[in-house]
Amino acid sequence: MSLLIALFGTPLAIRLFTRRGYGQLIREEGPAAHATKRGTPTMGGTVIVIATVVGYFVGHDATAFSISASGLLVLGLMAGLGLVGFVDDFLKIYKQTSLGLRSGAKLAGQSIVAVAFGLEVLRYPNFYDITPASAYISFLRDIGPVIGVVPFVVWIVLLIGGWSNAVNLTDGLDGLATGAAILVLAAYVLIANWQVRNACTGVFVTAQCYAVRDPLDLAVVAAAALGACIGFLWWNAPPARIFMGDTGSLALGGVLAGLAVCTQTQLLLVILGGLFVIITLSVIIQVGFYKMTGRRVFRMAPLQHHFELSGWAETTIVIRFWLISGLFVALGLGIFYLEWLPG
Length: 343
Prior knowledge:
This protein is mostly helical. It has helices spanning 2-20, 45-63, 69-95, 103-120, 149-170, 176-197, 215-236, 245-262, 268-272, 274-293, 303-309, 314-338, and strands at residues 137-138, 142-143. A hairpin with a 3-residue loop joins strand 1 (137-138) and strand 2.
């Protein structure tokens, strides 16, 4: 359902945004090839968010499957960050500049949504007294000692801020961020389904069981977002007829972070989303090295623009980066399954 809504709803959004003049503004210092993209409709992330939410609720209504606290919290995180991105995109269009919200205001909006999520996931225990998340850092499951509510919320703010901005930085070429997000979301469909089959609340409980509150519904959320991204990518693939904007990139970063928190795979997401991490590190390295030496490591950051200025075709960069993302996803899934191998 979410795929169909995105696939057939995106052309409607393209016509609506074009008629209203909601076109992309291009930075003057960016690659020269991007000048042809000026005026392409943006804020397409609204379609991704709407398709995900509608698909989720229609699926629940059609199957009479009960809505879970975990599913609603992850969707709420996605929608909340999408709203912050929408305001940012709208201000860019209104002011006719490539800069929307001030960095402080944008960070404040992300932090407010993240704090609300961090506090709420520690509530709503189910029959087995399992909450959507617990005050631990997690890798393949919760690890180490309890870190306490306040440090946990601070950690969640950093996690959500980091991932929403990482997807935002990756969204620099047609289809790049959407395709990479599809691969990571597909991984979470598999991870959450595996947790359903090996839940600590099942009939046959093993030493490696997962104390996750609503793994099946988290798989539904991941699948809904996955379908929405596939439908959107049909129109966002090179040459893109619409961009997701900050509305989509912040929302997708939020849903990935939310799934990681509620499936207890916070640090595993660093591997699954390795492409996003590399692209974010390229910006950190570029800025840090320039401030220390006055020289640049890359021709331009984020990393995808370095290869553009090196003469690579846009489609070449996008496809090769998708391949890299797929390799990271395969590595992350392999590590996730590793503890189930004999010996």
